[in-house]
């Protein structure tokens, strides 16, 4: 069956299906129950699955993740909601020191099938701490996997795949895209496209643009805007750890040019890692250095200037133009 | 004192005129049995002797590990010296179905669970980082980050309740160990909140050994630690942590309350860390000899021996036999530590992920090729 859903509704439907399929799946977080989450992603789930499975927790993020570790040891599969990106840091120790390392230090005897959902990124006019892009912190940590969905169809399937995974997964949701609609084929077997795989979302021949999460839409809009002048190939990374760069290598070998786009600051961000690996693997194919179009190396700014901070269509195209300057 | 500050006067500058605290005690330092209105034990003669045996063996194994560290066979050791009664008393109070979340010092609890004392030594030797299955032994891996395990224990206890395993004498209870320093951690306070509002079947067992490395209790708290429980809405009790009988009675009671569905309890086992924080510490820099001597008089093992002798429950042959058993276990432990192999280099890539990672596989392959490039390499 194909439905036209917003990204937020698709996540809700995916969570619902996961709760139906496995009674070890729990949802826990602040306001996820009666309220359905501040973005309503868990809307109606507590009503249908009960307070034992959809748990309104005390207001303490380390507690959410730390108790999820214990529940996972007990055999549960907790799906934790961190209300906003900027609120994940109190849980950072539990995520990095405990969640990420438990499987390793137990030599595979303890699995941590925990999903940490984080609405991330800016563009919604929010106050500070509500618009951050913390993905590099987590992608840098061995033992964690990090993914980000960019479309309703991916949201629906990726959240289910993440919950089914025996590895802990930081699941980054592009909050400003929650209300964007798309076709979701709810019959497609989940395994038909792997969770940790990048995907070419728009083929092209002149320059490769790599993005993930909220910037995929921006990159696609940029490609449409220059249609007829330049042919941009847009790749959605989807998995930030582990990275799946084979489609990027293949693309860059054809186009010779690469622009990496993300909201997070450039310094030591995902773009740096992509650039390093592409340079190593595609050195003789590159016509220009890999360029990054990113947020600036400042704290996330006040809402009235966030449009200047966030990469937009024009800045993406400026980056593309610059690669042709070499 | 600042104007308007109604806080009680605090002691300063290391002078500690603290009176002996009130706590549950069933066996005095002199080995006299005393009654308590709430708590009691009903051991057979053989069980009293068993407790003595546990205490002695646990102390001797600990001393052996300290020696192994001094000889370079372990990288580090966190000695439990002085805390044997707190660990044996609480460890023996556990039912087989109960789950333990230790710090990195609960070697005595581990022993009482019937677990081979070699198990945590891989971590201290540096050949692994735990590597055991918590569910197999009902004993979680050691946790180094202070207080983090109290949240794990709480989550596990919530899972026990979800599984319907509370509410009867066969119910499962969870015990979380931590120290006085950990009570300042956010995680411990969050664990108190969580376990309280979810009525989790858990016992918080705080071994107040008076020091967090060099920092005395006064740096962590202005109120007795067990009193904190009241603010979270569950009972707190202080027990003489050097009295194995009282620790047993108090812990058993708290575990039974948890398994029956009555929620958490905080136990403060009032004890003293006779040795260093770990083998990398030098306690002479921050505490005075007379304080240590005062606690030597409250030794947890001496009082049980005095009790056994006074009650004529054991003779010299028994004490000699326990010493011999402890010695044999230490030799056995030492032999096995010395023969622990170093991990093969490429195993450092194992088990990072349950479902694997192509990037990591490539890294491993690259490193294997590098290792193999050396002449005579076996890799």
TrEMBL record, chain B:
Start and end residues of each stretch annotated as Disordered: 1-20
Residues in Dehydrogenase E1 component domain copies: 55-344
InterPro entries listed in its UniProt record: Alpha-ketoacid_DH_E1_comp, DH_E1, PdhA/BkdA, THDP-binding
SUPFAM superfamilies: Thiamin diphosphate-binding fold (THDP-binding)
Keywords for this protein: Oxidoreductase, Pyruvate, Thiamine pyrophosphate
Highest taxon in the source lineage: Bacteria
Cofactor(s) required, per the database record: thiamine diphosphate
Pfam families on file: E1_dh
Annotated protein name in UniProt: Pyruvate dehydrogenase (Acetyl-transferring) E1 component subunit alpha
